[in-house]
From TrEMBL, chain A:
Superkingdom, natural source: Eukaryota
Domain B30.2/SPRY: 118-340
Listed name of the protein: B30.2/SPRY domain-containing protein
Record Pfam families: F-box, SPRY
PANTHER family noted in UniProt: RAN BINDING PROTEIN 9-RELATED (PTHR12864)
Native species: Cylindrotheca closterium
Gene3D superfamilies: 1.20.1280.50, 2.60.120.920
Lineage: Eukaryota, Sar, Stramenopiles, Ochrophyta, Bacillariophyta
Domain F-box, first and last residues per copy: 5-54
Automatic annotation (TrEMBL), chain B:
SMART domains recorded: Skp1
Family listed: Belongs to the SKP1 family.
Pfam families xrefs: Skp1, Skp1_POZ
Domain of life: Eukaryota
Coiled coil region boundaries: none
Ranges where the SKP1 component dimerisation domain occurs: 119-165
Protein name in UniProt: SKP1-like protein
Alphabetized InterPro entries for the sequence: SKP1, SKP1-like, SKP1-like_dim_sf, SKP1/BTB/POZ_sf, Skp1_comp_dimer, Skp1_comp_POZ
Domain SKP1 component POZ: 9-67
GO annotation, biological process: ubiquitin-dependent protein catabolic process
Taxonomic classification: Eukaryota, Sar, Stramenopiles, Ochrophyta, Bacillariophyta
Keywords: Ubl conjugation pathway
Keyword Thylakoid: no
Cited Gene3D superfamilies: Potassium Channel Kv1.1, Chain A
């Protein structure tokens, strides 16, 4: 008891590990920095359960059958044959968007109605206030989209290729999203993304498709209605006033359903693309490599709405998924808890070489 | 077997002090539960040579109290950001927070809880350790746990293999 050595080190391995059970990833990282023995311990195969618990708490929506994929396959240092969970966890932000918040008390003033689909767990959101009036409303997510960090230093290993100077160097993040095969993708990426689905009205979705192809008459009937309603999907900084503006106003970015317009900053309309409405799923993403914001519609990439956005702005601004609803249609937001319609993984592949270069040992 | 829970168990520490508790209180310890009892005798003496008296005294205190008021299971992820938020039972809060519970005592307790197989005590002490470590940097943790410093070679190797743990938040 009077010995100067650490009492912790004298404990059996499983007890030592147990002592770290309740720590978060960052604290385990600090513990791993302290000494050789503890570092080897927390990165050894004995620590499997410790890291599994960490996956559960930071990656969320993880159950016993979940399996993770890392397409870049960041290198492992100690645990062989498995993915580098500690590194991937350390790249995951503390908080990721998971629901809409009651900003500006929309939910308590009964203007927004939510209901949860029992089967899929999807939350449907419906606006019940007056439509087409001057006062418009938006709903914002609880957390911003994850974003990569801009590194001022060059990566550890300098590129031998004669690359452009001052090339942006984004440190990727990990934000798990479900794939169509139910695996959970935790590949480091530099592209953030979410999707909004507008529930089809009355008619079944499959039927609706057939109807819209077959009957021009119905198509004409529905067009004027769509022009009256408007759903606006986009991104906004934290201070965006949800009560009184749709994304696209002030310093936000928005894609409006009624005329397919892309709006940014004080509502000045830039250009038009496809209109959208009930039954459609619209995706919105930020590609930090190009400094652009892109949209997708029913799994197809529509292209960039804005490009070369100021790097400093992107590096410092938390962008929140925002949906303006001036419509009776109910919508649901998917942050990756359900499979995306758009092939995000395929889109990110173009950057995988550059990202894996960062992590080559 | 006949007098299940009514007998007396005497625990003798490494420095020869004896602590008494009922069989029912000793049930929480896997080691004591399974240890052989003296036949036809109401009192069983067990030597706990791995634990010294100051620590054993606290452990017995824990077992006696646990017999009266069970400790709630600690949820993961933790349901709070401070020790007292996570552990909301006052007696257990005080148990690991009084002046006797210094750093050495805490780790001796951890060790004793493991040796005697007392899961709630192990959890409680681990939780305490967690909140001592959380928010501290590597230097401070090294000081707290009295760990040896890294040699420059070890540090270089660690930086190469696990660069992320050296990144500043």
């Amino acid at each position: 008891m009077t010995k100067a050595s650490s009492a912790l080190e004298e404990l059996p391995i499983d007890v030592q590990l147990h002592a770290f059970d309740f720590l978060d990833v960052d604290s385990i990282g600090q513990v791993a920095r302290t000494c050789h023995c503890l570092r080897n311990l927390v990165f050894s195969n004995d620590a499997h359960e410790l890291w599994l618990n960490q996956c559960r708490s930071r990656w969320g929506h993880v159950d016993r059958d979940s399996y993770f994929i890392d397409k870049i396959d960041v290198p492992k240092a100690l645990a062989k044959g498995e993915m580098n969970v500690p590194l991937l966890l350390s790249m995951t932000p503390q908080a990721l968007p998971s629901k809409v918040v009651d900003k500006d008390n929309l939910l308590t003033t009964d203007k927004i109605e939510t209901s949860q689909d029992q089967e899929s767990g999807t939350v449907n959101i419906r606006y019940t206030g007056p439509i087409g009036e001057d006062q418009v409303h938006s709903i914002r997510s609880d957390q911003p989209l994850p974003r990569p960090q801009l590194c001022t230093k060059s990566p550890r290993r300098k590129l031998r290729l004669p690359s452009r100077k001052n090339k942006q160097n984004w440190k990727p993040f990990v934000a798990p999203f479900k794939e169509k095969d139910d695996s959970i993708n935790v590949t480091p990426r530099t592209v953030s993304y979410f999707e909004v689905s507008i529930k089809a009205q009355e008619v079944e979705e499959q039927e609706r498709e057939r109807v819209s192809f077959q009957s021009l008459l119905e198509e004409q009937e529905s067009t004027p209605e769509e022009q009256k309603d408007c759903i606006a999907i986009g991104l906004a900084p934290q201070d965006f006033d949800c009560n009184g503006a749709l994304p696209g106003h002030d310093f936000s970015f928005g894609y409006h359903s009624d005329n397919g317009g892309l709006y940014h900053n004080a509502g000045s309309r830039k250009k038009h693309t496809h209109q959208y409405g009930p039954g459609d799923t619209i995706g919105c993403g930020v590609d930090y490599n190009t400094g652009g914001i892109f949209f997708t519609k029913n799994s197809k990439l529509l292209g960039f709405a804005w490009k070369k956005i100021d790097t400093n702005f992107l590096a410092k601004t938390d962008l929140y998924p925002v949906v303006g609803i001036d419509s009776e249609d109910s919508i649901s937001i998917n942050y990756g808890h359900q499979p995306f319609q758009f092939d995000l993984s395929g889109y990110c592949e173009q950057y995988s070489k550059a990202i894996s270069k960062r992590y080559r040992l | 077997m006949a007098d299940e829970g009514n007998g007396i168990i005497r625990l003798r520490s490494s420095d020869g002090k004896v602590f008494e508790l009922t069989e029912s209180a000793a049930e929480i310890s896997e080691l004591l539960k399974d240890s052989p009892r003296e036949e036809d005798d109401e009192v069983t003496e067990i030597d706990i040579v791995r634990v010294a008296s100051p620590c054993l005294e606290k452990v017995v205190e824990f077992m006696k109290h646990y017999d009266e008021e069970k400790m709630k299971e600690i949820p993961t992820p933790l349901g709070g950001s401070t020790f007292n938020e996570v552990m909301d039972q006052p007696w257990y809060q005080d148990f690991v927070s009084d002046e006797k519970m210094n750093r050495d005592m805490l780790f001796n307790m951890l060790s004793a809880a493991n040796f005697l197989g007392i899961k709630p005590l192990l959890d409680l002490t681990c939780l305490k350790v967690t909140f001592q470590i959380t928010g501290k940097n590597a230097e401070e943790i090294r000081e707290l746990l009295r760990l040896p410093e890294l040699t420059p070679e070890e540090e270089a190797k660690a930086r190469e293999e696990h660069s992320w743990i050296f990144e500043e938040a």
